[in-house]
Amino acid sequence: MEAVNPYAAIPAKIKKIIPETPNITTFIIEGMPIEFKAGQFAELTVPGVGEAPFTPSSSPHADDLEFTIMKVGRVTSALFDLKEGDQLGVRGPFGKPYPLDEFKGKDVFIVGGGVGFAPLRSLLLALIHDINDYKKIYVRYGARTPGDIVYKHLLPGWRKLSKLDWLLTVDVGDETWKGRFGVVTVILDEIPVNVKVAPAIVCGPPLMMKFVTQRLVEAGFQHEKIYLSMEQNMSCGIGKCNHCRLGKVYVCKDGPVLTWEDVKHVEEPFV
Amino acid sequence: MKTYLIFLDKISIFVTELAKEGSLYYSKLENGKTHFVAHHENISIEPEFSKIRTPENMKHFFFRSRDLVARFPKDKSPAVSKQFLVGLKNCDLRGIDVYDRVCLKWQPLDPLYKARRDNTVIISADCPEPEECCFCNLVGLNPYPDAISDINITRLERHYLFETLSKKGEVIIEQFKDLFIEAGKEDLKERDKIRKNAVKALEKFNARSLPDNISERVEKADKKAKHAARKDCVECHGCLHACPTCYCFLLSDYRKGKETERIRTWDACYYAAYARVGGGANPRSKFDDRFWNRFVCKFDYFMQYEDIYACSGCGRCWRGCSGKIDIREILWKL
């Protein structure tokens, strides 16, 4: 039998495009061209332009595959030019999923920043799918302004779940904002979980990751239970091209979620 | 594995016969140096094995500087034809060993590499006269192969001694058995003497072994040591592209009619954009860190992954370097 070509993307169709904020959009891909677990990522191909890595924002149990993407570079700009019904390519899934079995019976502490909440949404939906397996889920989310908060339409439904505890903050508020102000670390003063056993999951901009990790370490979370979504330049996605190596680990095959224990020896893990 | 003899004047017949079955590339003497050249019909083949490895490195034959690796939306496997490589040295084989581990052992395997590897017959040769640039003995190799290739050749006084190192090699000898006679104990003694002299010559150039715990020393090198190591570097990146063990690459997509072609090109960790992410941040924005990445990759990380150095001791990086940076000098100073 001929070996599967790991560099070839599977053709897929954009079913729907949902603008989330002025520069963040959710792309819904028809059907489930790849099967993934929360925490794994895929490479999206814009035909004729190139590919870039993204973690799905949808539930692994959903019928369609979703990605919430910020427009930052060449490939994402071309992606934002695509329309509903257009073709793109999907390659993956790559990397290791969150160890959800290890989270069972424990509180789960999630900290997100900006578009970093996209991959966390996939995790959150996977946790909600089996919500009775976990003690309680705490979400701490910070955005620059109320307009930069992603998934606003989903928040009311999530807030109704008794096993979900939410706290939001914005750097700069407006007249409608009634929540907390300041960067996300301001809502980490109180950590209502047993830090000796609870996993903490973090995803957001590099600077936010750095200071949140510091705070979680100070609070006493176990280093091997602080899960960080790492961002590095990726090309192949399969641990061969060497681009995403962070210290001796490959973000694409050993991550993209790595623990603080994995990366704390790296001189500057957050870029 | 078995050993055979072939008369010196018959080697040309042997390789000419091989050339009828596929593309043939071999080490040829040109102006006092050997170069790896393609055989063209109606030109007699006179391979030369006495010199050190050729300046050309062998990764081209399995992992080209520019390769079409996938098509979109419909992928199809590229055609791969049979090739014979004659005259590789053990340092060349270390390069192939590293690629075998990355492309075949580490899953998922690379199908294009596998197809080329399966369709290639490697005939290596002893390296009887190491030169100043050679340091394969420092990275755990001998100046003669005992694995990776299919057949190895040692030039004796009156014969070439062939040793089969794989099933593929045995099949070839069987196919041309009329050209060969079995080797005896005296022939092996003669070979051992040649090999002993080659090892001695290498030791003369490299009397000092690498410091103990070199992986740890490389990992813990301070900023001063990293800066001092790169002070003569002109950032041409030639060392990385000349290196038989460097395997970094980049995938880029190009439109061709209605199709998209995914092209794999060699990349090098010295390039400023190598580790830069979409938003513009760069974990190795300083050249000191990029320069040192080569050392941690070859002498620390690959050793941790595979228990071998991703360095062949071939000296191509030094020979081709405008700043004459010798990797050995840097390692000895740690």
From TrEMBL, chain A:
Name under which the protein is recorded: FAD-binding FR-type domain-containing protein
Domain FAD-binding FR-type: 7-100
Cofactor dependency: [2Fe-2S] cluster
PROSITE patterns from the UniProt entry: FAD_FR (PS51384)
Presence of keyword Glycoprotein: no
Cofactor notes: Binds 1 [2Fe-2S] cluster per subunit.
Pfam family, one: NAD_binding_1
Residues that, per the record, bind [2Fe-2S] cluster: C236, C241, C244, C252
GO function term, MF aspect, one: 2 iron, 2 sulfur cluster binding
Signal sequence, renumbered to the chain: none
The entry's keywords: 2Fe-2S, Iron, Iron-sulfur, Metal-binding
InterPro entries named in the record: Cyt_c3_hydrogenase_gsu, Dihydroorotate_DH_Fe-S-bd, FAD-bd_FR_type, FNR_nucleotide-bd, OxRdtase_FAD/NAD-bd, PyrK_electron_transfer, Riboflavin_synthase-like_b-brl
PANTHER family found in the cross-reference section: ANAEROBIC SULFITE REDUCTASE SUBUNIT B, DIHYDROOROTATE DEHYDROGENASE B (NAD(+)), ELECTRON TRANSFER SUBUNIT
Single GO biological process annotation from the record: pyrimidine nucleotide biosynthetic process
Source species of the chain: candidate division WOR-3 bacterium RBG_13_43_14
UniProtKB/TrEMBL annotation, chain B:
Signal peptide (residue range): none
GO MF annotations in UniProt: iron-sulfur cluster binding; metal ion binding
Sequence ranges assigned to domain 4Fe-4S ferredoxin-type in this UniProt record: 223-254
Highest taxon in the source lineage: Bacteria
UniProt keyword Transmembrane, yes or no: no
Pfam (any one): Fer4_22
Protein's name in the database: 4Fe-4S ferredoxin-type domain-containing protein
UniProt lineage: Bacteria, Bacteria division WOR-3
Keyword line: Iron, Iron-sulfur, Metal-binding
Metal-binding found in the keyword field: yes
